[in-house]
Amino acid sequence: MSKTFFPSRDLMRRKFQTGIVVVSITLCVAATLFLLLFSSEIGIGISFGVEGRLSAGLSTVFSSFLILIEILLFIIGAVIVSFVSFLMMSQRTKDIGLMKAAGCSNERILYYFRTELLMVTFLGCFLGVIFGVLADFVLINFFSMLGVQMQRVSVNLLFVFLIFIAFFFMGIIFGGKPIYDVIKVEPAKAVSPTYYHGLNKGPSFKPISKSRFTMRIALRSLYRHKSATIRIIACLALVFVLVTVAVAGGVIAEQTSENWIERAVGSNEVLIANQEVCNQYELLLSKFYTANQSSGLNYTQGSYLIPKDLLSQLNQSISGISIDPRLITETNITEVPGITYNENTGNYTYTGSNREGEALIIGVEPGQVSTDWFTDGEFLQVGQHWEAVIGDSIAQEMFSEPLNESLIVSNGPRSWEFGIVGVCTDPINNGKVIYVPLEDLQDATYVPLINNATNELGINMILVKIDTSANYKETLNQIRALVDKTYPQFGVLELNGLLDKSVGFLNQIWSTIMFLPAFSLAAASICLIGYVMLSINEQRQEFGILRAIGAKPRTIIRIVSEQSFIVLLSCYAIGIIGGVSLTWLVLVPNPLITGLGMAEITGWLLIALAATFVFALYPAIRFSKKSILEMMT
Amino acid sequence: METSKTAILVSSLCKTYEVGDTKVEVLTDVNLDVKTGEFVVISGASGSGKTTLLNLISSIDKPTSGKIEIFDNDLSDKNEDFLAGFRCLNVGFVFQSYNLFSTLTVAENVAFPMEWVQHPDAQITKKVEELLELVGLQHRADHFPSQLSGGEQQRVAFARALANDPPLLLVDEPTGNLDAKTSAKIIQILRGLKDEGKTIITATHDEQIFTLADQKFCLENGKLENLE
């Protein structure tokens, strides 16, 4: 007999078992490769789509989310392929034992079964790659047709090849382990079910004495196949970590990022400024969601400054509002490197260089700010001077360690140094903004606190926050009437509309990204189907015995479904804890969890649980329809 | 003991298997009438169809044609749920290869057919003890099947078949793989069951079992011949 004849003939004659393994590996490789390609395309699509928009901090949240998911996807794919190969070869230990007993040499046994493993793993991985690329191609085109933000890129063949190689070798290494293990043991041991089932003697194990018969069988079987059960739980738990990161991470990151924008723009905020400044401010805020270019404006010219009288009338005649005076301008800034002294070495370390650039700079009264930013570090404090909080984009573009550095504002021959105390997420001017104390900015721009000759204040905009206790529309109308009557060249800009557009833009990006949880859920279901098929195959003879002795077909379905449910619940518990921890610790700084968010996450995860469970029932239902003799032989 | 009532009536039974393009006719026009409490022995060469006949009578396989009535129930038109319930309560099957549940202990293997019919736990425990005592395996209650000898597994299979006290017992080659001493124990069990009034059909070559028989048949070329 030719050496390769036995493995190929053996595989062909075990069509059903071989088919299950090839299908499982194919589905897993295809699902993983598809998700990896798909998530890259979503990422690239978003990068192209948001070019010149969004702020650096938010882009970082999106990209770290996608990277984390891609890493998890790869690990899960590799683990499942290894698991399936391992399971396939574990089921052959009895055959190996019989061959050893019949006098076959270890070398020949190794050759036979390694060849079988190579054939099956190669075929599964190869088909998986083909189907994965095809699924990606079909779905990307489909979503593009629907207008979803995605970028069609040519398939990176090197990447696909690397995935193939990685999965193939993982399958070979882990699938080879049981072969090497079993050739070391005596033939009598290898052919014993106690060995090849990995049975743990546990007669004292009484699951729940009052539980139903099927539950007891399911629990006993899982308990006594302890090693296989632990392996599948570890494997599926990883899948559910991915599902949880994708679902919970996606929801939390979406809500957190939206909250950052809401806090920075402020709700129920109204801007009062010269009409041109109003237009400019609108343009600066809309840069977050449209690729607008703002034109230069001499912000500090006299006609833009707020008359003292306007501020007084606002304070006196309108109740239920709080006033946040600001001075906005553009200026040249220069990075000042930070110096750190190392006490152990006695050396000074310099961070950063002397990068220069233009930035929007806003002077605020720290005690009167009506908006609130998500800030790394701290915001400006009352009474503190020559300190600055910079936007996330400028921090990334111009500074190495912003919180350890300073910046210089230059105006003509003079310059002023501000120590950076915080980095905030702000949509205005795509995060290229600096907040400093109002008084200091007035100094630096030579704008007096009040011009006694013209009665103009040293501010060019007022943010008015309408209290939630006040009637918003009525108060807004009062403000408009006052401004129109007293200073018609000034305008009133409602910021709620701009806030809605910014949040809507974020929503649009997240809704594209949230395809990933849906697909990762499908991948999880496929993995579970693979597991259930293998598990049924392993127990088919025993299910046949049950049926022969009088069990109804639905008893078999119930046992399989209860086993799947127990495995699923265990995996879910681990997956949710792992996924939420990853989201909390790695993905989103200071995550925001709202009641609605919790409900959304719970809903998604319950759908995931139900969907995977229902999918897992399919092979059990099909199996229960087989004839008893077919099950037993 | 009532012996006149028909327990099993097999009429014009045929079974054909298809192996690729080839049709193998295993049973041809088999007829059998077994009265309640009778002990029937079926012999025949290996591959003659003895196991197939027992599978068909127990309803775990379906005939190609013909009719099987057990305790006045025509099984040919019944659905799987009915057949499962019928087997559970009326038919005890001792398979040639024992077919014990490898992940259940001896006691659990004996107990589980009773658990389906939801006997109280205490009753199940008591019955398991009685059955294991009957087959002499009380001391093996907590062992797995793989830790037992062939004879011991055979006796567990008997205990399991008797769990729900079925009136019909089908036994496939009960002593085929056993030594003389163990065979004697099995025959002793069979004799006890016959004395209890169970209807028993066994496929065997064992001359000692023939001595218990009320009816003897031989399967040859798919046909059942009465040896009386």
Topology:
The complex is a heterodimer of chains A (633) and B (228).
Chain A: H1 5-13, H2 15-49, H3 56-90, H4 93-101, H5 106-146, H6 157-183, H7 187-191, H8 193-196, H9 213-224, H10 226-265, E1 269-274, H11 275-286, H12 308-317, E2 321-336, E3 338-342, E4 347-351, E5 356-364, E6 374-377, E7 387-391, H13 392-398, E8 406-411, E9 414-425, E10 433-437, H14 438-444, E11 450-451, E12 456-457, E13 461-466, H15 472-486, E14 490-494, H16 496-513, H17 515-549, H18 553-587, H19 595-624, H20 628-632
Parallel strand pairs in A: 5-10, 7-9
Antiparallel strand pairs in A: 1-13, 1-14, 2-5, 2-8, 2-13, 3-4, 6-9, 7-10, 8-9, 11-12
Helix pairs in contact in A: 1-5, 2-3, 2-5, 2-17, 3-6, 3-10, 3-17, 4-6, 5-6, 9-10, 9-18, 10-16, 10-17, 10-18, 10-19, 17-18, 17-19, 18-19
Chain B: E1 6-19, E2 22-35, E3 39-44, H1 50-57, E4 65-70, E5 73-74, H2 80-90, E6 91-94, H3 106-116, H4 121-134, H5 150-161, E7 168-172, H6 180-196, E8 199-203, H7 207-210, E9 215-220, E10 223-226
Parallel strand pairs in B: 3-8, 3-9, 6-7, 7-8
Antiparallel strand pairs in B: 1-2, 1-4, 4-5, 9-10
Helix pairs in contact in B: 3-4, 3-5, 4-5
Plain-language structure description:
The complex is a heterodimer of chains A (633) and B (228). Chain A is built from 20 helices and 14 strands. In chain A, the strands form 3 sheets. Chain A has a 6-stranded mixed barrel, surrounded by 4 helices. A two-stranded antiparallel ribbon of chain A has the order 3-4. Chain A has helices at residues 5-13, 15-49, 56-90, 93-101, 106-146, 157-183, 187-191, 193-196, 213-224, 226-265, 275-286, 308-317, 392-398, 438-444, 472-486, 496-513, 515-549, 553-587, 595-624, 628-632; strands at residues 269-274, 321-336, 338-342, 347-351, 356-364, 374-377, 387-391, 406-411, 414-425, 433-437, 450-451, 456-457, 461-466, 490-494. In chain A, helix 3 (56-90) packs parallel to helix 6. The longest helix of chain A is centred in the N-terminal third of the chain and has 41 residues, at 106-146. Chain A folds into 3 domains: 1-196, no CATH class; 198-265 and 495-633, no CATH class; 267-494, no CATH class. With 633 residues, chain A is α+β, with helices and mostly antiparallel strands. The model of chain B has no long low-confidence stretch (mean pLDDT 88). In chain B, helix 3 packs parallel to helix 5 (150-161). The relative contact order of chain B is 0.20. A 6-stranded mixed beta sheet of chain B has the order 6-7-8-3-9-10. Chain B has helices at 50-57, 80-90, 106-116, 121-134, 150-161, 180-196, 207-210, and strands spanning 6-19, 22-35, 39-44, 65-70, 73-74, 91-94, 168-172, 199-203, 215-220, 223-226. By secondary structure, chain B is of the alpha/beta class.
